[in-house]
Amino acid sequence: MDWSHPTAIVVGNETMGISDVALKLSDMHCSVPMKGMVDSFNVSVAAGILMHHAVYDRVSRLGQNGDLTPEENRILLAEFYLRHRESTATVIHEYAKRKANNLVAKL
């Protein structure tokens, strides 16, 4: 599968699976092979395996995961830290320290 294009992953559980409508709308179907004494994967495990392969394939084809520019990626990361860190001051301090370390490394 070529994961470098926009892709939606729909994962169904082992009891109900995926709806007939979702199956009909799908361009492609895939399954996660199992080896050994395993009857089935938990749906979150199956989704994790698919996502791992999607990211690996995307990086190998495009050289990066995602389509954000480095600047957009830094902005998104900063916004995430601001929402999820206990202290905004800590985030700002860590960012400044990294910038200073990068500057020193370049000298």
TrEMBL record:
The keyword Ribonucleoprotein does not apply. Pfam families: SpoU_methylase. Residues 2-52 form the tRNA/rRNA methyltransferase SpoU type domain. SUPFAM superfamilies: alpha/beta knot (SSF75217). One of its GO terms (molecular function) is RNA methyltransferase activity. GO terms for biological process: tRNA guanine ribose methylation. Keywords: Methyltransferase, RNA-binding, S-adenosyl-L-methionine, Transferase, tRNA processing, tRNA-binding. This is tRNA/rRNA methyltransferase SpoU type domain-containing protein.
